[in-house]
Design goal:
This protein has eight helices and six strands. By secondary structure, the chain is an alpha/beta fold. Strands 3-2-4-1-5-6 form a six-stranded mixed sheet, with helices on both faces. The two termini are 19 Å apart.
Length: 248
């Protein structure tokens, strides 16, 4: 399958103020977040992207715009796509509340230790969902888009999905075949880069929560996957025993 780069949006005013923004409208990147996404756009400029797909929320749209704007030689063109499946968790009545306040709620302990049992409380203005439901619709969105991109651009295609902290953590947990109840062990910072290649037999997690400054150049890996798909093994997705030699 193709290679997906999972990018969390940059820092927002809500992040800085310790507010659980959820699906509140009008939550934008702050000055630091704007700098972060400009940097991540430059980091990804070395890799031609088949497409950029994003959550519908403004902070992710701003991040996607920065990534697309930095592309110098990309099939992605000058725009990005929106996918509701990548949207933030529906936190219901927790939406817009201070994290310090939420940490005193009984549900907080379940979110930390048993998130697979958690459904957020309903609210008149904000939808709620379970954390399992969040993971299921995000995984479905990634798998469907990944298959479509490979069909259109080939097995070495690289694309970006811009989403949110808990959503990306749940996607990484799924790629690791780790139970959702352990997903709080994963850290996904603002404007971080996480890379997953969903091969025929299993996902390969190539990078997690990378907030560095070095270019992310996947052209060597992309070529290797394209070549393997036409070779005798036909891109079986077997892991190299001993770790292999990597890609250029």
């Amino acid at each position: 399958m193709a290679i997906v780069i999972l990018v969390r949006h940059g820092r927002t005013t809500a992040n800085a103020d310790g507010i659980l923004a959820g699906r509140m409208p009008g939550i934008l990147l702050d000055d630091r977040g704007t700098e972060q996404v400009a940097r991540v756009g430059q980091r990804l400029a070395a890799t031609p992207l088949a497409t950029v797909v994003t959550s519908p929320l403004e902070r992710c749209q701003q991040t996607a715009e920065a990534i697309v704007s930095a592309q110098r030689h990309s099939p992605a063109g000058s725009t990005f796509l929106t996918d509701e499946g990548l949207g933030e968790c529906r936190y219901g009545a927790w939406t817009g509340r201070p994290i310090k306040e939420l940490a005193q709620e009984p549900l907080w302990r379940d979110i930390q230790d048993h998130p697979s049992t958690v459904t957020f409380p309903p609210h008149d203005d904000y939808e709620s969902e379970s954390m399992v439901g969040m993971q299921q619709r995000a995984v479905a969105a990634i798998e469907a888009r990944d298959a479509r991109i490979e069909a259109e651009h080939g097995p070495g295609a690289v694309w970006v999905a811009v989403s949110h902290g808990d959503v990306i953590k749940s996607l990484v947990a799924d790629a690791f075949a780790s139970p959702l109840d352990r997903f709080q062990r994963i850290v996904i910072d603002p404007a971080s880069v996480t890379i997953v290649h969903r091969a025929a037999d299993r996902p390969f997690v190539l990078r997690v929560n990378d907030t560095g400054s070095d270019p992310v150049d996947l052209t060597g890996l992309s070529k290797a996957l394209t070549d393997a798909a036409s070779g005798p093994e036909n891109g079986s997705g077997d892991a190299a025993v001993g770790g292999g030699a990597g890609s250029d």
